[in-house]
Design a protein that fits this description.
By secondary structure, the chain is of the alpha+beta class. The protein is 19% helix and 51% strand. The protein contains 1 helix and 9 strands. The chain has one helix at residues 2-23; strands spanning 29-37, 40-46, 54-58, 65-68, 71-73, 76-81, 84-89, 94-99, 102-114. A hairpin with a 6-residue loop joins strand 3 and strand 4. The protein is rod-shaped and about 80 Å long. It starts with a helix and ends with a strand.
Length: 115
């Protein structure tokens, strides 16, 4: 009787340890921002938004480029790509591209994947 009780108790303690260690593991997270303005579009992929974090930028018919976020304030982040400066607003889900004094406004959609 006592051996059965100790075996059950050790099994429960072992399961509790496994479940606690599983909750402390970091989860995989990926975010995709797709922005479009008529026929012009681009996508940004990132894991977490922090200053000096790397994000992937992709336009149709161009290679994927990786760069650092230059400025992050609240739900806005800024970066530069070639001759353009971009400002992404995650609250309003908009993007503004400034190039040669012209501004293009994009409508964006955010998709998050967590595991």
């Amino acid at each position: 009787m006592r051996k059965d009780f100790i075996l059950i108790l050790l099994t429960l303690v072992g399961l509790a340890y496994i479940f606690i260690s599983m909750t402390k593991n970091t989860r995989f997270e990926s975010n995709l921002i797709s922005c479009a303005n008529g026929q012009v579009s681009f996508q940004i992929t990132y894991k977490k938004l922090k200053s000096d974090m790397f994000v992937n930028f992709e336009k149709p018919d161009e290679e994927i480029t990786t760069f650092k976020i230059t400025n992050l304030d609240g739900e806005n982040f800024h970066f530069e790509h070639q001759l353009s400066k971009f400002k992404i607003n995650l609250d309003e889900q908009t993007a503004i591209e400034t190039r040669s004094g012209e501004k293009l406004i994009y409508k964006c959609a955010l998709e998050s994947f967590k595991m």
